Amino acid sequence: MTRPALLSLDDALPQLLAQAVALPRVETVSTFEADGRVLVQDVVAALQVPPQDNSSMDGYAVRASDCAQADAVLRVTQRIPAGTHGTQLNAGEAARIFTGAPIPPGADAVVMQEDCEALEGDQVKVSKAVLAGQWIRRSGEDVTRGATVLSKGTRLTPAELGLAASIGLAQLQVSARPRVALFSTGDELVMPGDVAPEAMPAGAIYNSNRFFLRAMLQRLGCEVTDLGIVPDKREATIAALRDAAQHHDLILTSGGVSVGEEDHIKPAVESLGELNLWQLAIKPGKPFAYGKVNRDADSDDCHFMGLPGNPVSSFVTFLLLVRPFVLALQGVTKTDIARTEMTAHFDWPRADKRREFLRVKRNAQGGLDLFPNQSSGVLTSAVWGDGVVDNPAGQTIAKGDTVRFISFAE
Ligand code: AMP
Ligand code: MG
Question: Cα separations (Å) of 117 from 90, 94, 112, 366?
């Protein structure tokens, strides 16, 4: 029997993203609560920032033509703290002004207070010659009225929340959180806390995938329903998938997606819907699957993604495939992962037929060190490392070679 060639990641990812149509549900949230959420419309400024020309220093607002030479003496006729505004400034006059206060009409420069000397009788001596425009922040130099300051499809970060607030927005329109049902398969799995380490029966292991998958989904803005561990039984797997499909946008599973007799995910999905992708030419992560599970009421189906059980395989396939998918469900326009060229400080003498993702760490010399054990079960590699090298199929690596690095920070 000849096995069909595995699908390449470059072929699979566009097929996957073509299925990840942005969910139509929209929410209005407080700008305070919008970190990590995705804008569903452009944000346009209704005012200039700063709103008026204002002082960037504590000092004196002056007419530069009065101070063309050093040591000009001016009469101080007004005082403008931040939050107030001044009046017309005439020739021969200065206004005491503070950072952020609007420049009064008639003034065209600010002298910092370090360059001034207050004299008797409300007078000030300006020790240096003054240039028109100095120490003035111009209206609109940050944002001009009518400008699109944030675009639809942007995933908001703290800096963007500040910018939205600076143009007066207390609320933002964002896409709803994708509802993701998460479950693990495997009769060997035990939840930490249920059984003490010293009492673990032979053959049992703790369920680690559940913890990082849930945390990663939440960080990406998903609302996670954690369905726990589903037994390695055909009927139980079908029941869990069918139930989860009713009220979720995506079902994410780990384990049971290979070809063993105890792997029920693939036939279960096929019986409830369709399996569109299965088995990719990547290492780790080959058993990855994508499909759809029918919903009873709705014509629209629930997305299904099956990750391999081996923890590192699960972790890497999440990064490469689930992450862009759940971002796309939220309408994120830029879902591709950043790859940086870096220098390998290690040898990888044995090429693999599959594209490999090697756990590495950036070192102080600006290169990459390799974790010695690249087995897909060794989760220590993901903790020790800060990313993976994306190594093409059939490629060896020698110390000094340029490789493509993907940071876990993504
Ligand atoms: P599977 O994909 O179900 O064949 O599992 C592959 C390997 O990953 C087996 O050694 C499992 O015991 C292990 N494994 C499966 N699920 C988990 C999990 N949730 N946490 C930790 N290890 C797991
Ligand atoms: Mg299993």
Answer: 20, 12, 10, 51
259 CA distance to ligand 2 centroid (A)? 10
Q: What gap in Å lies between CA 336 and CA 52, rounded to an integer?
A: 40
Query: How many angstroms does the Cα of residue 312 sit away from the middle of ligand 1?
Result: 10
User: Using CA atoms, how far apart are residues 253 and 214, in angstroms rounded to an integer?
Assistant: 11
Tokens of 52: 């008026």
Count of residues making up the chain: 410
Q: Is the pLDDT of residue 149 over 80?
A: yes
Is cis: bond before 50, omega within 30 of 0? yes
Whether pLDDT at 46 is above 60? yes
Lining ligand 1 with CB less than 6 A are 184, 186, 188-189, 205, 207-210, 254-256, 258, 308-311
pLDDT of residue 300 exceeding 90, the answer is: no
Atom of ligand 1 nearest to the CA of 313: 8
Cis peptide bond upstream of 372, omega within 30:
no
> pTM for the whole thing?
0.93
Ligand 2 centroid vs 300 CA: distance in angstroms?
29
Residue 197 confidence (pLDDT): 98
To the nearest 5 percent, what fractions of the chain are helix, strand and coil? 20, 30, 45
Q: Would strands 189-190 and 205-206 be described as parallel, antiparallel, or unpaired? A: parallel
Q: What is the pLDDT of residue 296?
A: 83
- The pLDDT of 80-104, averaged and rounded, is 98
Which residue spans within 4-144 are E strands per DSSP?
Answer: 26-30, 43-44, 54-55, 59-62, 72-80, 93-97, 109-112, 116-119, 123-126, 136-137
pLDDT at 1 over 60: no
Give tens-digit pLDDT for 320-365: 999 999 999 999 999 999 999 999 999 999 999 999 999 999 999 9
The pLDDT confidence band at residue 62, using thresholds 50, 70 and 90, is: very high
Give first-to-last CA distance, the chain, whole Å: 40
* pLDDT number for residue 298: 66
95, 78 Cβ separation under 8 angstroms:
yes
The C-alpha atoms of residue 63 and residue 111 are separated, in whole angstroms, by 10
